[in-house]
Amino acid sequence: DGGITQSPKYLFRKEGQNVTLSCEQNLNHDAMYWYRQDPGQGLRLIYYSQIVNDFQKGDIAEGYSVSREKKESFPLTVTSAQKNPTAFYLCASSIEGYTEAFFGQGTRLTVV
Amino acid sequence: AQSVTQLGSHVSVSEGALVLLRCNYSSSVPPYLFWYVQYPNQGLQLLLKYTSAATLVKGINGFEAEFKKSETSFHLTKPSAHMSDAAEYFCALTGGGNKLTFGTGTQLKVEL
């Protein structure tokens, strides 16, 4: 079945450690996105990529990094510079701009 | 710049009653508009989308929305609420780029 796979579903890390969240899609979509979700704040865009080897900062990119070496994959690294990393992270993809995005099931990151 | 405003972070209805979730948008170009639903600890699922064709859009699970340019609105309705409709609902838009901008969400509660 085609779709977007995020792993792991739950992730625990100690403060000060970098952590990488995985996002893989087999929909042959060009565009991929990372969103952060906090209660009462909706979804905020971290990074997005419209094509392999290219990506742009979203609204809250500080403390995060991404890569897009393959069309299918768009991993997100939460670095120790992110001051409040505990959140629900959602990955999405779309064929191109102006079309709907398809979402993965999310990764809940808890930093202790 | 583009933005989405969802009026009412929490809406409560009785089972069988009309559901009305409000969404207003701002966009400097003709927008594409979307409604998504999210169940706890899951990703977002597309309910319906407006892409400049018919202004009344029908989606899954009996939901529909009407695009009103003069009011810059895209409210979501369902004639008769069901217990299974309890979830969080997000309005979103794209316009002038590949970014999908979300509202802050409306939590729908359905009571017996």
Describe this structure in words.
The complex is a heterodimer of chains A (112) and B (112). Chain A is globular and about 35 Å long. In chain A, the strands form two sheets. In chain A, strands 2, 4, 5, 6, 9, 10 and 11 form a seven-stranded mixed β-sheet that branches. In chain A, strands 1-3-8-7 form a four-stranded antiparallel β-sheet, with no helix packed on it. Chain A is built from no helices and eleven strands. Chain A has 112 residues and is mainly β. Helices cover 0% and strands 55% of the residues of chain B. In chain B, the strands form two sheets. In chain B, strands 2, 4, 5, 9, 10 and 11 form a six-stranded mixed β-sheet that branches. In chain B, strands 1-3-8-7-6 form a five-stranded antiparallel β-sheet, with no helix packed on it. The model of chain B has no long low-confidence stretch (mean pLDDT 93). In chain B, 34% of the residues are buried. Chain B is globular. By secondary structure, chain B is mostly beta strands. Chain B has strands spanning 3-7, 10-14, 19-26, 32-38, 44-50, 56-58, 64-68, 73-78, 87-94, 101-102, 106-111. The A-B interface holds A 4, 6, 31, 33, 35, 40-45, 48, 50, 58, 88, 90, 92, 94, 96-106, 108 and B 9, 32, 34, 36, 41-46, 49, 51, 90, 94, 97-105.
Overall geometry of chain A comes to: globular
- Helical fraction of chain A equals under 10%
Helix content of chain B: under 10%
Average pLDDT taken over every residue of chain B: 93
**Class from secondary-structure proportions of chain B:** mainly beta
Order of helices and strands of chain B: EEEEEEEEEEE
Give the termini distance of chain A in whole angstroms.
Answer: 36 Å
Give the N-to-C terminal Cα separation of chain B: 42 Å
The total beta strand count of chain A reads 11
What's the alpha carbon Rg of chain A, rounded to whole Å?
A: 13 Å
Q: Give unreliable regions of chain B as ranges.
A: none
Strand coverage percent of chain A: over 45%
Largest sheet of chain A: 7 strands, mixed
**What proportion of the residues of chain B form beta strands (DSSP E)?**
over 45%
Major beta sheet summary of chain B: 6 strands, mixed
Assembly type: heterodimer
Number of helices of chain A: 0
Per DSSP E runs of 2 or more residues, the count of β-strands of chain B stands at 11
